[in-house]
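Records of this kind hold a single protein each, on a pair of labelled lines. With that in mind, the following record should read easily:
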Amino acid sequence: MDELKVFTGSAHPALTLAVAEYLGIPMGECEVSEFSNENIFVRVLENVRQRDTFVVQPLSSPVNRNLVELLIMIDALKRASAGRITAVVPYYAYGRTDKKDQPRVPITARLIADLLTVAGANRLLTVDLHAAQIQGFFNIPVDELTALNILGDYFAKKDFDSLVVVATDIGISKRARDLATKLNAPLAIMEKRRIGNQDRTETLNVIGEVSGRVALTVDDEIDTAGSLVNTVATLIDQGAKEVYACCTHPVFSSRAMPRIAECPVKEVVVTDSLPIKDGKKLGKITVLSIAPLLGEAIHRIHTGSSIGAMFE
């Protein structure tokens, strides 16, 4: 493990520290600062020549600053002759812009992939991409982990009677089905549509039986929580006894926290793929750590072991 180095950007140092503790190594020493003109400066403070290096940086708010910082850190490691550079991006921002669904719009998820590759990343390690096809945007190896097992183990311990797993839209239905299988529960799907380019959705219908059951909604991320509020209201209208929610990425932007506080959802279970500031913590929000998941994946990448075997 002496050849393994794990560095952190400024987005989520607590997660990187937990990963390093799992691996039993100290965090790599690196100086990251910002000049008065908002230019970012990075200096690697230890020898990384021919080392296997990992940079942990979720693309959290402020997204664009954290993205540029990650690119600069990768470039610094490349110019310091690192043997291999893996960008560990638990949350891949711009994941929704994965196709041209309107005239004259960008495919920003592909642009981010190109930027990471040109900067010098040799591989990507991420968690629950918004769209699986984003892996194909890269010409370098991509390892996509999933937090479904962590979320599933948490709810399995609750031992609900008459549980139904609800996919918040058709796009997440495969992952929701996998979670439903793990919990030995039936699956329901919310049919909804997004209104223009706004962060608003209109729930249309529930496909499946939820009346008299405890409903568990599944999504890859919660952003403004507008979709969550609509889903919970619809499920209760359809006769669900209680509604729980889970997701991998707690973006929690805009009015998400007040909406969750006012919403009748019993509990919202998320991971620490993104930092949650103290002002965004509520009693009904539970945070599970993905540090062991990332740590084990980093160890397997470093030693040449199988990543897929982690989920078999």
The radius of gyration is 20 Å. DSSP finds eight helices and 14 strands in the chain. The longest helix spans residues 63-79. Residues 74 and 226 are 36 Å apart (CA to CA).
